[in-house]
Design brief:
Layout lengths: L5 E4 L2 H12 L11 H20 L4 E3 L8 E3 L3 E10 L8 E5 L10 E9 L11 E11 H7 L1 E3 L4 E2 L4 E2 L4 E5 L6 H8 L1
Parallel strand pairs: 4-6
Antiparallel strand pairs: 1-7, 2-3, 3-4, 5-11, 6-7, 8-11, 9-10
Helix pairs in contact: 1-2
């Protein structure tokens, strides 16, 4: 896969809408980061909606159902997974899908977003994220076929990630690139 991440410089309206959404939702059971996780997820959804709109992808918001985030063109169920990073994403980096979410989420596709913040910036201010990247997607079957299962408590020695829950990780190089995802969805 050629790197064709779609970069979005974050502006006030992104932060305001992401905060409004995250403030209005409950903290989900098993959430590892609580309110902060809601901010990350909601901001990723705001960015994916902007991306879809700018690329002519028709979608319906289904986030309140908790089984998936969007219905794409009345054909596909999609769930968005967003990762908080202190560096811009690269093809050799990975994205994660927590296994416990797969009990109630059964989308046709996952789409991955990376939020970039300065390493020194921490806390709960949503403005800590300065840019977002739409990095690509994958269908559920390929995720299970190509992804790697990491068990709770294990550590990926290649990057130091310690897993707080069972996850399936997929390398960005194994994702369907954005241009191909747009072709699938339109």
């Amino acid at each position: 896969m050629e790197e064709n991440f779609y970069k979005i410089e974050l502006e006030s309206y992104h932060w305001e809408l992401g905060k409004e959404r995250s403030d209005g939702m409950p903290i989900l059971n098993k959430s590892h980061r609580g309110r902060e996780a809601n901010q990350v997820g909601c901001l990723g959804e705001v960015l994916i909606e902007e991306f879809f709109t700018s690329h002519g992808v028709r979608f319906k918001d289904k986030r309140k159902e908790y089984t998936h985030d969007y219905n794409i063109n009345q054909r596909f169920f999609l769930d968005v997974k967003t990762k908080d990073r202190t560096v811009a994403p690269r093809l050799n980096y990975e994205n994660s899908v927590p296994v416990y979410q797969m009990d109630y989420q059964k989308p046709d596709f996952y789409y991955f977003v990376s939020l970039h913040r300065d390493r020194e910036t921490d806390g709960t201010d949503i403005r800590r994220f300065k840019e977002g990247y739409i990095v690509g997607g994958i269908n559920r079957n390929k995720l299970f076929k190509v992804g790697k299962l990491w068990e709770k408590g294990s550590t990926d020695k290649s990057n130091g990630t310690h897993f707080w829950t069972d996850c399936i990780n997929i390398k960005m190089s194994d994702l369907i690139p954005n241009d191909s995802m747009i072709n699938i969805f339109t």
